[in-house]
Amino acid sequence: MTQYIVRRLIHSVFIVWGCATLVFFMIRLIPGDPVLQMLGPEYTPEAAEALRHKLGLDQPIYVQYLKWFSSVLRGDLGDSIATGETVVGAIKTGFPKTLSITVLSFLIALAIALPAGIVAALRRNSVIDYLVSILAFAGVSMPGFWFGIILIILFAVQLRWLPAVGYASLTQDGFWPWLSHLLLPSLAVGTGYAAILMRFVRAGLLEVLGMDYVRTARAKGLAEWTVIARHALRNALIPVVTVAGIQLALLLSGTVVIETVFSIRGLGRILVGAIFDKDYPIVQGVILLIAVIFVMANLIVDIIYTFLDPRIRYG
Questions:
Q1: How far apart are CA 35 and CA 23, in angstroms?
Q2: Residue 98 shares a structural domain with residue 67
Q3: Could you say which of 14, 42, 66, 304 has the lowest number of CB atoms within 10 Å?
Q4: Which of the residues in the chain have pLDDT under 70?
Q5: What is the pTM (predicted TM-score) of this model?
Q6: Percent of the chain at pLDDT above 70?
Q7: How far is it, in rounded angstroms, from Cα 157 to Cα 166?
Q8: In angstroms, rounded to a whole number, what is the distance separating the alpha carbons of residues 35 and 118?
Q9: What is the C-alpha separation between 281 and 24, in angstroms, rounded?
Q10: From CA 191, how far away is CA 187, in angstroms rounded?
Q11: Same domain for 193 and 258?
């Protein structure tokens, strides 16, 4: 296992480097000049040339790449072209907000998906199964931004229980202000996420329940919930873990729409704003972080496989 993890980490370095390199060159193919966008329509050629030289954009692209790559190796992701803020500083500002939404959404999704999927599988073709299936399809079909607006109207405008927009820091504002600002966006994200996981839990458990070792466990006289929890559910969770890992990485890479609806400047909004502003350093830094998140999520999922199924071993 240790050798496998070391090999995967080495491979991951090359994957992250390839993604970062691809983004570095592709973003420069986007039409438009960031210098002219910063100066506005009434720019002068002299001012544009001076700013381009200051930002290093007048150098050949391979020189720009070598300078950027050497800076990354030193832990320096550069400064924002648009605001002058360091890329690391921008990521530190946005990532905790996105991480907070992601973690709470993930917990809400698990709290809904696991019991609902298990009950639907155990009560196959019953009214409960049909009801859970209808709710799952509704959750998958329902746009997150629309559900978020409904939550704002209901809980923030009508009932006035929770704040409609914004973000409160856990360390500075306290636990309840932090949680109250996250509940609505996390519900909007977690409900759709739960619908996806719910279908996988139900399908995986139905497949496992028909296997010989489950029938043997029941024939031994074990309690039904012991059979489900210790024998069936553990193997049924393997595809669920795969989907959960990918979805968790997607959420961490930026819940752009939800962050926009609830006016939270998380990682997703920072990335989209940087793309529109042609802010090369911000885009490169955020994409580099996203690549690391996806690579590590896949590695963690592979490791979890070995705990769920002892037959899985990586040589």
A1: 19
A2: no
A3: 42
A4: 1, 253-254, 308-315
A5: 0.80
A6: 97
A7: 15
A8: 56
A9: 9
A10: 6
A11: yes
